Amino acid sequence: MGRRRKAREVALQVLYEIDFLKIDPQEAVRLFWENFDAPKNVQKFSSRLIEGTVEFQQEIDELISSCSENWSISRMSRVDRNILRLAVYEFLCEKTPQIVVIDEAVDLAKRFGGEESGQFVNGLLDSLRKRLEPGLEETLS
Predict the structure, then answer these.
(1) At 97, which CATH number?
(2) How many CA atoms are closer than 13 Å to the CA of 6, on its beta-carbon side?
(3) Is residue 24 classed exposed, middle or buried when 0-12, 13-18 and 19+ CB atoms within 10 A define those classes?
(4) pLDDT digit string (tens) for 37-51?
């Protein structure tokens, strides 16, 4: 498994923990790394994804809500909403091509989500991708 894929998995697990337990993000990261090990570059990228996603969560949730018909953030499964949050942050604040972000998010959804999660995540992120205009990448930075 590649380091960026592993970092995304770690980020998803920590974001899920933060969402479920309502704990401080730094505490969640600390607890994770006390119990699991990974190369420093995985730790660095996952920490950046976690911190950015948490920092801009309100704006990210608004973008997700604007693309999801009949699904409020609170109605989404914790796994799906945190995959979406992570992917939207990476769309807007990282240099990763959007199609790669979508593919990675769909893979996470298939691995960690429910039976329909892959399709749900793919559809919502593709809708968001189509709405983004050049220059919007700087919106959250």
Answers:
(1) 1.10.940.10
(2) 12
(3) exposed
(4) 989 999 999 999 999
